[in-house]
Automatic annotation (TrEMBL):
It holds the Pfam family MAM33. It comes from Paramecium sonneborni. This is Mitochondrial glycoprotein. PANTHER family: COMPLEMENT COMPONENT 1 (PTHR10826), COMPLEMENT COMPONENT 1 Q SUBCOMPONENT-BINDING PROTEIN, MITOCHONDRIAL (PTHR10826:SF1). It comes from the Eukaryota. Transmembrane segments: none annotated. InterPro entries: MAM33. Residues 102-111 have a biased composition (Acidic residues). GO terms for cellular component: mitochondrial matrix. Residues 98-128 are annotated as: Disordered.
């Protein structure tokens, strides 16, 4: 039931000023339109710049063919997979697109840091520019050995070696979450040096070397640039339609 407004209250009500109510709304729309037009121009400029500066690297195909890998690179995914067979062992390399790390230090600071590290006998990497990747070695009987690796300036380092039960499910786990529930082995650097070297040599036998590391660093950046161009293109479509 809709109740009636008492007559004494009705007399006190003032007529609504429609123009005054619509004025702020119209002003808001004008601001949105202006900011939208500005955004479109910036996106168009950025997209044009990225497309004009992107050059497809033809050496990618040559490297893949020589290394014997099959490249799996889905257009809308940040995951990249390399796969091949060595004897009866299935070799799977997994990595992701990555953004370039900005170099925040000046040349003098870099040189000084490098000299300090050489004096102290440190062997740690001097660059913040690196890419993570995972290598799976799966035997015909289903057993899987997993190497968690990092590559920087083509120098491949092993961080962790573990035995896993299911390849597909493990590949879906974010890298930083792997090994949180189940024991995945000790930090690689804590192992006996002879054991470390033997495990690295075993991995190299499957073609996981510095050349592959350099390829992963390059391709992960290339993948990120292609995804960024696609994102800009989709953003431009949204703003114009």
């Amino acid at each position: 039931m809709i109740s009636k407004i008492p007559l004494r209250l009705l007399r006190t009500l003032k007529p609504m000023n429609v123009q005054r109510v619509l004025a702020p709304f119209c002003t808001q729309l004008e601001k949105i339109n202006k900011s939208g037009q500005k955004l479109v121009k910036i996106v168009e400029k950025e997209l044009k710049f990225e497309k004009s500066n992107y050059v497809e690297d033809e050496s990618v195909t040559d490297f893949i063919d020589k290394a014997g890998f099959k490249l799996v690179d889905e257009e809308n995914s940040h995951e990249v997979t390399l796969e091949k067979k060595v004897g009866d062992i299935r070799v799977v390399v997994q990595f992701q697109s990555r953004q370039p790390n900005p170099d925040e230090e000046g040349e003098e600071e870099q040189e000084q840091e490098k000299q300090n590290q050489e004096q102290e006998g440190e062997e740690s990497q001097t660059s913040n520019d690196y890419a993570d990747f995972t290598v799976y070695l799966q035997k015909a009987n289903g057993q899987i050995l997993c190497y968690e690796c990092t590559t920087s300036q083509g120098d491949v380092n092993v961080n962790l070696v573990s035995l896993i039960k299911d390849l597909e499910s493990h590949m879906k786990i974010p890298r930083f979450e792997r090994g949180l529930q189940d024991y995945s082995g000790p930090d690689f650097i804590t192992l006996d040096e002879r054991l470390q070297q033997a495990m690295v040599d075993y991995l190299k036998g499957f073609g996981i070397n510095n050349q592959l590391g350099a390829f992963i660093e390059h391709y992960s950046l290339d993948k990120e640039q292609r995804l960024y161009i696609k994102w800009l293109d989709s953003l431009q479509t949204f703003l114009k339609n």
